Amino acid sequence: MTTKGYIKDYPRLQFVREKWMNLNGEWDFRFDDENVGEIEKWQEQLAGSHKITVPFTYETQASGIGIEEFHSQVWYSKNVSIPKEAEGKRVILHFQAVDYIAKVWVNGVLAGSHQGAYAAFSFDITPYLTFGADNIITLKAEDSDDCTQPRGKQRWTKDNFECFYVQTTGIWQTVWLEYVEEQRLDTVKITPDLDHARVAFDYRVHGLETAKGTLRLEAIVTMKDRHVKTVSLVIDRPRLSVEVDLVHEVNGPWKRIFWSPQQPNLYDVEFVLYQDDIVVDRVLSYFGMRKVSIEKGKVLLNNVPVYQRLMLDQGYWTESHLTPPSEEALIADIDYMLEMGYNGVRKHMKIEDARFLYWCDVKGLLVWSEMAATFEFHDDAVENFTKEWLEIVHQQYNHPSIITWVPFNESWGIPYILHDQRQQKFTESIYHLTKSYDPYRPVITNDGWEHTVSDIITLHDYVETGEKFLKRYAGNKEAIVNKETTCNQWKYALADGYEYKGQPIMITEFGGIAFQSDKGWGYGQQVQTDEEFLERFDGLVQAIKSVDYICGFCYTQLTDVQQEINGLLTEDRKPKFPLDQIREINLK
Fold it and tell me: What GO molecular functions are on record for this protein (predicted)?
């Protein structure tokens, strides 16, 4: 089952229009190690030395290049034919992700720039186009090994090390065009209110000042092709809100139309913008009625405690690294997690393709959305991180599957947060900025340890056996949260100056068990046999579940990743043992 607006490979399924063009595929490509391209005007005519398959980066085999050495300046160019019949429309050029600074020219004229590896961005390129002819789109991507830019698991050295992998440079998600009118919807922020059976739509409307008639916006809400509600309002300002009462009898009792992992019910909504009586924009979207809250040390979903069985997933593939090789590959990963008895995923150090979140919405997989870390604390890092994180929260807000925001992990980029008040205040500011835009989801300020203000206390511990885990945690809650002891072998649960306030406690990294190999590493001693693995895995899972103050866990990890060989699947997605054995242990 998909939503009404689903189009295969459409890059932004939360906001779907009919008229669009996918620009993935072959582009001209050139390295610019001397950074002379702009001076020599490559933006006007790029003499490409390579062909590259977008959206795969030059470091990957899927790109057709497969050079892993770092190059800080790279160029792309593509001839795009814009049909004559599109004249009179506005043409919007979208990039779902480019790492790290992108400059874009159309027919040699600068159309815009963007900084940030993980947020989507777009430009209205209409003024620079010739309709009914070929047009040259050129992009220069500038990357660096600077640790003040959010980079996640991308290495900043020549070779891979520890848990850091080959860098990602340039275009790594879909490039596309859409044709729109001057009067159109820019965004709709959708906020469900489960307790009062209503949903709020916060609109941003473009082109009000040039409208030649009355603008009217209609929202048509349906579920499973049954009409639920239609609301209409006259547009008299560019930003406005409407609340829609969803109480109805069509689909039976209200409790049956919540969104949850067990029943991922989604409402379709069609937004139609009229100028007088003429349709000038039509957007298809969807939403889920669900609520995330915290009470008495528990995380509640739809006012009922939920025990979260999460899988840590870094989203790497052998041939394409951070870029999903296909939409089917994203769906397969979700299906693997569900088949193994997990009800959620912690997407680790990566902002994933929006289609992944779409399928989590559709299939009912809970998501912790986690920002890629910087690895140096500096004024530049604060600025870079804050700007991009807020873009991401805005862009991902409407996904019902996302139930937790995770801006920081394991003190990465904030290495002295235990006692450094500047770093502590930085995490507090990100917490409160996130809450100012989204007060409805928990925010974890430093997943793993040394929390400041945080809605959940999350702990990482790669202890090898269930017996050792119980010795450390069973009956030791007060000692851990009061910093009388560390939460693992060397880190405290809370930073200096912060007190435990009854938050839920979860173990959000553990396991990482690897089979014996000289080609990579896992956590603790490597195992020799399936039986040895399953015994250790079972012991850890059951030990965590037996501790009454722990309300969920996250296992490391879904797949092997380059030198890390501690996945339940290999990097090319082959299960290491029958998945039903993992499911049985998780659901005991």
Answer: hydrolase activity, hydrolyzing O-glycosyl compounds
Burial class (CB in 10 A: 0-12, 13-18, 19+), 481: buried
Chain segment 223-261, per-residue pLDDT in tens: 988 899 999 999 999 999 999 998 764 455 444 689 999
For residue 365, the tally of other CB atoms under 10 A from its CB is: 24
Q: How many residues does the chain have?
A: 588
Q: Which helix (H) or strand (E) holds 137?
A: strand 133-142
Distance of alpha carbon 269 from alpha carbon 289, whole angstroms = 13
Taken in order 556, 561, 565, 569, the sign of the CA dihedral is: positive
Ordered by where they begin, the domains of the chain are 20-180 (2.60.120.260), 184-287 (2.60.40.10), 307-586 (3.20.20.80)
Look up the pTM and report it: 0.96
Q: Reduce the secondary structure of 491-537 to three states and give it as a string.
A: CCCECCCCCCCCCCEEEEEEECCCECCCCCECCCCCECCHHHHHHHH
The distance of Cα 184 from the centroid of its chain, to the nearest Å, equals 26
Q: Are 532 and 539 in contact (CB under 8 A)?
A: no
